[in-house]
Every structure is written in C-alpha cells, then in structure tokens.
Design a protein that fits this description.
This protein has 19 helices and 16 strands. The chain has 472 residues and is an alpha/beta fold.
C-alpha cells in the first residue's frame, strides 16, 4: 500500500469516527463501549498526519512515543512495523490507547487541532495494539545480557508495570510486589470493564511476565515487608504503590450504609466481581437513585457503573460548572448518551439516613463561581438560602485520594511533603539511596500515562544508578 499523498491532500481528509455500542444496549452490561477502528478507517486517519518537522505531538507524550513514525507505518498499511515501533516506546499500548487523555496531551499539540480536529492518535494507538495482539505478530522483546542486579517494584499499576518492563529489558532481575490478590493496580480495580476490559490488562501483564518479570501478589509493603527490608535483599527499588486513601467530604451522614468512597465502590465492582452475573461476586449496594459527588474520570466511572448496576437515576453532582470538569470529553459524551444526569454548581452539606441507617437523601446547596483557586479553576461559593434535598439510595464520594501512610509509616527515612506524598528529585530518586518513586504516591492522583512516564524515566535512572555501583 503506497502513501504518496501531498499535505494539501491530507488536509482535506476529515477525522474518522470511533464505532461504539448503542447506549440503550450497553447500559445493561459491562461490555466495552468503544469497538475500535477497522483497518481502512485506521489507514485513512493516519493519512491525516502531515508529518510535521518539529513533531509537537511527541512533546505532549509523557512516555515519548515516536508518534509520527508509527502513524506513517499505519498509513502505509505496514501494521507490523507500526506495532514494533509502538512496543519499543510503550509498555502498555492497548491500555494507553483506551484510557490515556490524549486530547489533553499529544492530540492537544497536533497542528490539525482546528475545526477538522487533531489526528486521532489515541484511537490509532489502540488499533495497532489490538491488531498486533489479534494477529499474533508480536516479536519477543530482546532482553539485554543479565546484569546480576535485582530490582524490587512496589505496586503493579501502570507505573510499576512500565518500570518493570524497562528494567527487565535492561537485563535486571525484577520482582513486583502487589498488595492485592491480582496484578494490575488501578488498571484492574479502578477502571470499569466497559472502558478497559480485564482481558486487555491480563494480556499486557502476560507480555511482561514473558520477559522474566516475577509478580508476587498479597504482599503488603508496610505490613508483610518494609522498604528497608526490601533494600537488604535488592540493589534498588521503585515505589509505585499509588495513593489509595480516599478523601471524604467531612459532612454528617458519611458513615451511613449505602455510602461509598469511589475506591471501595469501584474495587468491589471491578476487582471483586460485583459486576458479574450469578453467584460468587462481592456484594455491592444497588438502588433506584445513585448520586456521585465529583467531576473527574473516577466520578464518571462510578456514576456510569451505578447506571449499569440498575440505578434508573444515576446523578453526577459537581460543585463547579461543566467547563471546569476535569473528566475526559469522551467519557462525558458517553455518560450523556447513557442517560446520566448532571447537576452542576451544587455542593453536598449532609447525607440523610432512615431509621435503619441506610441513605435516603442528600442535602445540597447551590453554588456560584468566584475567583480562581490554587487549581486555576474558579472557586465554588455557596449561595445562602439555596439548600435543597435530593432522594438517594446510593452515594459515592469521588473527590480524590491521598497518600496511604501504610508504606511510609514503616520507613521514616523517606522524606514526605506536607500531604504525605513521597518527595523525589528530578530523576525520581527519594531521600533513600537506591529507592526511587513515581505515580500517585508522588503526584497524589494523576493519570495512567503520567504514572507510566514516571516508571519509564525512573527505570533509566535506576539503570544508571546500578551501573554506577558496578563501576566502583
């Protein structure tokens, strides 16, 4: 297949659409919403790239994927080469292609981000990863000669998996310690099946294990073993255990039955099988009306999950306006299709229970936006006398997370910031020699791709550190 279009011709090509399941059908199950691009659509979309000399899209990618190169190969119909380029740079392409906020990163830098829309880099990333997996064309990654060094990775989320892959390719022996009974971290417990199927996570982890990476589950670092104990056995350590401590509203009624943090709610559903039909799944409360507080991707995941679990009214209540919501545009679009109700400029002030201790309503107050706060978004200000009550059976609080002190409490040598996150230098090095950290335990609630970027960067710094030890 040739690829001899001029840039003038490329500029006439409109952005393709992502096929998706009908909303009326998909709210009845947890099957994936987006269906993926076909080969013809992928080639057409890749041909929209005008091959910029400065490659601004790469500047927006936290893991430095050679975007123009793999797009060019797709445009030529050479999917095998595109997959090889992608795999060199991205440890988890099928995952990143589904959950990475490309519209705020690589696609935001695309010079075609005008009326015709940027090149759909994320959809093409997913396409080539899925094509490679389905066609069994992946070639085994070449592992460097063994170095004899042992590296421990704490946490099997996106940061830990990425660091483990890079370190294994460098020839180091890598063991991942995972606290839960199945690997994947937030990819498995935090993101619903309809956005990221577990089979995709399993396939990416299997590729990692094929490189020789070992994963030990049910190891709670801070309880089962501590970081100082790890460093007695290993030459280096990368800490990527996330920030899994939920943040609550500190209002009356949060201890009522039927009130969940987003962490618990999504973990029960995603990791413990509450979304599965039949016996054996972990129970989770269901009811006609579910209210989710928050405006990010986690809140969106929770409210769309509640809709699928039978809530006829699944309401997302956010204290700011639509423009200030940090959730991905695509997720908001899908939620609207699925009948999710959005209530903007409202803030909860009380959760009301019945005599049996179950939620029956939430009391809220309307807000208006004032001057920008530290986040750069306008601060919500309560409007006096605007309180109202909304019936509710399920309440999910999805307003963020903070650092879980379990690991850091048993390692006082680790320097923390005032929020309890691990402090690192520009190389990802902590205050302990040989111990590096990244992801949410450092950033306090970031994206999958930013955690992957931390893992990739820290792996190279760990390799550099170990080579320094070798030279002495």
């Amino acid at each position: 297949m040739t690829n001899n279009l001029t840039n003038k011709q490329r500029l006439t090509i409109g952005r393709v659409s992502m096929p998706e399941r009908d909303a009326s059908r998909r709210i009845e199950d947890f099957d994936e919403v987006n269906l993926g691009l076909g080969q013809a659509a992928a080639v057409e979309e890749a041909n929209r790239c005008i091959r910029c000399k400065n490659k601004p899209c790469m500047e927006g990618c936290p893991i430095a994927v050679r975007i123009p190169e793999f797009l060019e190969k797709i445009a030529e119909g050479d999917f095998q080469s595109a997959a090889e380029i992608m795999r060199q740079d991205n440890a988890l392409p099928a995952i990143a292609g589904r959950v990475c906020p490309q519209e705020k990163q690589c696609e935001a830098r695309c010079v075609r981000s005008g009326s015709s829309g940027p090149v759909a880099i994320g959809w093409l990333e997913r396409f080539i990863a899925d094509w490679s997996r389905n066609n069994s064309t992946k070639r085994p990654a070449v592992v460097s000669q063994k170095t004899g060094f042992k590296v421990a990775v704490v946490g099997s989320g996106p940061g830990g998996l990425t660091a483990a892959r890079e370190l294994a390719l460098m020839g180091h022996d890598v063991i991942i310690f995972e606290a839960l009974h199945a690997p994947g971290g937030v990819l498995r417990y935090g993101i619903p099946e309809f956005r990221l199927p577990k089979s995709i996570v399993d396939a990416e982890i299997a590729d990692l294990q094929a490189l020789g990476v070992k994963i030990e589950c049910n190891v709670v670092v801070g309880k089962t073993i501590t970081v100082p104990q790890i460093m007695e056995e290993f030459d280096a350590c990368f800490v990527a255990n996330g920030a899994g401590l939920p943040v609550f509203l500190n209002i009356a009624g949060e201890n009522l039955k039927g009130v969940y943090s987003a962490n618990e709610y999504l973990t029960r559903v995603n990791l413990m099988g509450a979304y599965l039909e039949g016996p054996g799944g972990t129970p989770v409360s269901r009811g006609p009306v579910a209210v989710v507080f928050g405006g990010g991707n986690t809140a969106m995941d929770a409210v769309r999950t509640a809709r699928r679990l039978g809530s006829h009214r699944a309401i997302l209540a956010y204290r700011r306006g639509r423009e200030e919501m940090p959730a991905r545009v695509e997720e908001v679009h899908h939620a609207q299709q699925e009948g999710i109700e959005f209530m903007f400029l409202v803030n909860p002030i009380e959760i009301i229970g019945d005599r049996q201790g179950w939620v029956r309503a939430v009391r809220m107050i309307r807000t208006e936006l004032g001057e920008p706060d530290s986040s750069g978004r306008r601060r919500p200000i309560p409007i006096s006398g605007s309180e109202f009550e909304l019936p509710a059976d399920i309440v999910v609080v999805a307003i963020g997370t903070s650092a879980n002190p379990l690991l850091t409490a048993t390692c006082p040598q680790l320097k923390l910031n005032k929020r309890g996150n691990i402090e690192v230098d520009s190389d990802g090095q902590t205050s302990i020699k040989g111990v590096f950290a990244g992801g949410d335990i450092v950033r306090n609630g970031a994206t999958v791709i930013l955690a992957m970027g931390d893992g990739k960067r820290s792996a190279f710094q760990i390799d550099r550190y170990l080579k320094g030890k070798q030279d002495k």
